[in-house]
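Lab notebook, bench 4. Still working through the backlog of constructs that have no structural model yet. Next entry is a single chain of 271 residues. Request: give me the structure tokens for it.
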Amino acid sequence: MEIRHAIVTGGGSGLGRALCLEIARSGGIVVVADQNEDTARETAEAVVARGGHAEIVRIDVTRAEEVVELGRLAQRLLPQVDLVVNNAGVVSGGAIGTLALEEWRRVLAVNLDGVIHGCHVFAPLLRAQRHGAILNVASLAGLLSAPLLGPYNVSKAGVVALSETLHAELRPHGVGVTVLCPSFFQTNLLGSWAEPDAALVTSAAREMARGRIDAGEVARRALAAVRAGLLYAVPMPEARLAWWFKRLAPAMLARLLASRRFRERAGLPVP
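Model written out:
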């Protein structure tokens, strides 16, 4: 499948920007949709420097009406929609029962509702085209469930379930769905943590620093999965191994994640 014209939410930075730049290599048009217009403009300039064309749309994906408007704009700005990337995301964490419910709502609104809105708006368009694909950005956290990341885990697991459902619905119409589940890599995601827990942030930052591939490589592997028509894109070998272990011995993995040894190794607080 050729990807020339695409919409990328959260395209202003991090993985979203990397995806925009990879798509730009085709010379097509990328709609850079982001809540931060300044960073979206920076991405758009980089897209043009790569030989592509860019349009900027300021959007809050938690507001369904703004995503509906993005769909209308996309039909005017693009000759056709080859790919929709639902990428916008935030992170938070803390013990369940301690972390404020407002934080749960914030994370679920962006990470899950935002993807639901994107799928709701663009699935009918792609179905009518009988062409194109949707790439939903989840995380290894959507396949595993480490402690102290409840809102993030739940939101990303929801994205996985949504993607599996949508794949079954759209495949008969010639439309692909891929869910991207990377593990740690260097990005600016931690900057979205509203009330950061020092121990959790330190642990996550350390794991990100250990990441063997960068955002650009994650983007390349994600788009390769889309072109190949794959439902699951798990770009890191260690993430694929952990996912395989989860499917092979789920109870054993659950005991490991609940163990003192896991917390100590991950640098998490030990009760």
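Notes after review: The chain has a mean pLDDT of 91. The longest helix spans residues 101-129. Flag for follow-up if needed.
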